[in-house]
Design brief:
single chain, about 170 residues, alpha/beta, Rossmann fold, 6 helices, 5 strands, about 45% helix, about 20% strand, globular
Length: about 170
Amino acid sequence: MKTLYLIGGTMSVGKTTVCRELKNQLPRSVFLDGDWCWDMNPFVVTEETKAMVLDNITALLKNFLRCSAYDHVIFCWVMHQQAILDQILSRLDLTGVTVVPVSLVCSREVLLQRLNQDVSAGLRQPDILLRSLQRLPLYDALDTHKIDTSCATVPEIVQAILRLTK
């Protein structure tokens, strides 16, 4: 039996950090960050590039799920619409796979603090503030387990995710 963890959340909510630690806690695990499939210059969002990124993500997830070396496949991406989750899952053979869909959320105040730190550090552009804040409430409508990262440590968040599989 394999487990596919789908970890969504708006920008700066802690997806990548949490998933790296989750990978370290789970034996025989592999981690894919959807942002790696968007790492391009110039960053261009068109129907063609969106389709290509989704194709790349699902191809990698298919390969990880088929590979006998891994029991746990961890994927994170913004995934702010149910249609994104559904589209990814519809392209995968989930026979013998437990899917654990999670949305990491946090308070608006904490999100602004994290985003402003990233902008000040030169890690993100200022336009991230509005885009991330606009996505935050969208996670309430998703068919996922919600985990609030506002006041939780990374190990606490990882433990909350692991409890979902028991």
